[in-house]
Amino acid sequence: MKPIKYSTEDRIHVAVDCIIFGFDGQELKALLIHRKMDPGLGVWSLMGGFVKIDESLDEAAVRILHSLTGLDNIYMEQLHSYGAVHRDIGGRVISVAYFALINIEDYEEQVLDEHDARWVPLNELPDLIFDHKQMVQDAHQRLRQKVANHPIGFALLPEKFTLPQLLSLYEAIYDAPIDKRNFSRKMLSLGILKKLAEKEKSSSRKGAFFYVFDQEKYEKLSNEGLSFI
Amino acid sequence: MKPIKYSTEDRIHVAVDCIIFGFDGQELKALLIHRKMDPGLGVWSLMGGFVKIDESLDEAAVRILHSLTGLDNIYMEQLHSYGAVHRDIGGRVISVAYFALINIEDYEEQVLDEHDARWVPLNELPDLIFDHKQMVQDAHQRLRQKVANHPIGFALLPEKFTLPQLLSLYEAIYDAPIDKRNFSRKMLSLGILKKLAEKEKSSSRKGAFFYVFDQEKYEKLSNEGLSFI
DNA sequence: CCAAAAGTGTTATAGATACACCCATGC
DNA sequence: GCATGGGTGTATCTATAACACTTTTGG
């Protein structure tokens, strides 16, 4: 770290807040906690923390996500920075929001209790502290845009997933029904899904074939912009 | 301002840097200055400044834009926050980048000299300080996405503009030729341009009709997403 | 044999693309 | 009358949207 050469005035707390999305097969959910510090102790909140002087914004986001979920190598993207003067009643804090997509099955029940955290469906959001509800809504909006053109939805599903599961995910994200014939034709025509011989048998007698996302094929194709959905 | 309740550790300089776009009828340009402070005095740079403790990020962006251009009520949008630990050699500084679209004719030559500023075509960018070149490239990319779906390109043109001018603008933004018949059909079919009786006569003998962007019509239509171009 | 979910094909429509000629005017 | 840029129409193709029946199999 180089010595600080700028004046020490005008330095500001910078926080990172994480909108963590999960999908349980039915609904799109966000991981919320009860805030563990004053002001606002106990109020519903996103997971967050201050950026340390010797870590980048991205590193802070990874650290904060890890501290709540125990997970690494998670899809994460910077959303927006929130900088209203009085957005945090504890003092001047600028917050850089990140959103993350995790496979909800990877998330341990026990960690939920340790952090007093809960998965909450997006259409049943309680009041959140500060501007966190706005952040969740902005993240949801961004997710909708993004999954339409980028293969990131898979991060919300297990590694092996079925087309009906993928369809349900998109319907949950858009909160709208999607025609399954058009959907599967389009998804498969992108050429980035690898069909497995194995079937998922728990949700129907017939069983649905598993697929995996083929990262390599995708990178070959995606010299910019396939269109999903 | 409420008293600071959080510890004074971990406070960080937060800067705003502005990518200011202009269009001279031919090329898309960015407004660059020679940096006026150490470290990096004299190096090509974006216009920027530290966020003050009692102003929001958006306010800081407006202030900084105004200080360089004298302009108010300018289209401006937050782009991204840049937070690598050593991105600024003068100390730990997180930068929130904003991009602005201005009508280059509104910008006074004299202000250029006062600030040692210059309009530089995007494909002739010199080396810029820190990560500013990345910021310009990210902003250009975002502008491309945005003008495809939102009526913000008009902010780069005079209030009254012709279809050929608008076409040139889009061609400059995408750095690609666009068919003028398809373009004007599509633009006009959106129903957000008002044709004036008056013609622009300086660039052709026949003259091209002026249009103005019809904000009201747009707001009526745009309960989400027209598709431009 | 039946209930439940998986899988599959065709038609209609809208939007995108490609393409070339006439028009109006100042000189 | 001619050079210059402005303006316009049509045909093709591709992508999307709408829509319903057959298949599989565990019980």
TrEMBL record, chains A, B:
Classification via CDD domains: NUDIX_NadM_like
Coiled-coil segments, which residues?
none
Name the record gives this protein: NUDIX domain-containing protein
Q: Which SUPFAM superfamilies match?
A: Nudix (SSF55811), Winged helix' DNA-binding domain (SSF46785)
Where does the Nudix hydrolase domain start and stop, copy by copy? 11-149
Species of origin reads Imperialibacter roseus
- InterPro entries, A to Z: NUDIX_hydrolase-like_dom_sf, NUDIX_hydrolase_dom, WH-like_DNA-bd_sf, WH_DNA-bd_sf, WHD_NrtR
Q: Which Pfam families match?
A: NUDIX, WHD_NrtR
